[in-house]
Amino acid sequence: MASASLQFFAFILALFGVFGDIAATLLPNWKVNADVGSNIITAITQMQGLWMDCTWYSTGMFSCTLKYSILSLPIYIQAARTTMVLSCILSAFGICITTVGMKCTKLGGDTDSKSHACFAGGVCFIIAGICGLVPTSWHMREIISNFLDQTIPESSKHEPGGAVYTGFISAGLLLIAGVIFCTSCLKKQQGAWIYPPKQHNFPSTEQESNAGYNLKDYV
Questions:
Q1: d(CA 11, CA 1)
Q2: Can you quote a single GO CC term (predicted)?
Q3: Total structural domains within the chain
């Protein structure tokens, strides 16, 4: 019962991780640059994401431009696109597989099949968490290095946006969920190895022959 409750808790964490992973992939605020200038009325907030760049004006106007050219993008943005999409796909597969393998569901067949499915889903969550952690860390490193570079003007410097922090949190939730699913299955398998099923000892052929010999003595 405790293992089933732990798996359900890990499944909830994985759901939040999947939703956060998708949101971080689509949000345009991976990098944010606020240019107030001399007049607060004409303040501009520029945001750069993986798929589009958006500009928000203090007057309430909001405009976005899609990034159509892939080759013109920096390498870390191209890598972030690939790994974040892969993280979303793997985490979605993990949700489907763990739904079958969880103990609180009636899917997946016998106990061994559900245990294997649960372990495979946990591996998907771990890989998805790593795929989500790599681009956010790389993006954060590029933002910090450019911000500390004295040769770059202040108007071209950016700060980490909400999408980066959302990606960090989502990757952590997926990693925790994957570890919980994997360990819950490994404990059961280790218990089966440590305490193997008892073997029943059947009477040997020698005892049967002795019994037959004793019966012959009474004839």
A1: 15
A2: plasma membrane
A3: 1
